[in-house]
Specification:
Length: 129
């Protein structure tokens, strides 16, 4: 996630006690999604059901506040949507709550376009209520 501000504005903000946070942004096709990470898909359930990354947990970005307790805090959370906007919002929200997050730039669209494995599911997934 990238934000721009005048250097003197950022410096003044920090000097007044403000904290500047950053979120790691990794292109989805370069990310290591194996191992001990949670892959969080913040797209709508219909998008997720039509094609997803194997093992991804689906919680719509607007429903995250109702499901924080279901997202592990003891391991990194790699977050994606279709193209990158919703995952950026979700990453910022979870980062503020103390999660270790990585925003997966390019989103599922870039994943599928690169020919990466896609899982299809008709089932409703958790976090959609």
């Amino acid at each position: 996630i990238v934000a721009y501000a005048a250097a003197d504005s950022v410096q003044a903000y920090q000097e007044s006690g403000g904290v500047v946070e950053t979120i790691e942004d990794v292109h989805i096709t370069d990310a290591d999604l194996g191992g001990d990470v949670t892959v969080l898909d913040v797209r709508k359930s219909a998008e997720h059901g039509a094609g997803s990354i194997e093992g991804a947990c689906n919680i719509v970005h607007t429903h995250l506040p109702k499901h924080f307790e279901s997202i592990p805090k003891d391991k990194p959370v790699h977050i994606h949507c279709q193209g990158g906007t919703r995952s950026a919002y979700a990453s910022a929200m979870l980062k503020r709550l103390g999660y270790e997050v990585v925003n997966l730039a390019g989103g599922f669209g870039a994943w599928a376009q690169a020919g990466k494995p896609v899982e299809i599911s008709d089932a409703e997934t958790a976090g959609q209520s």
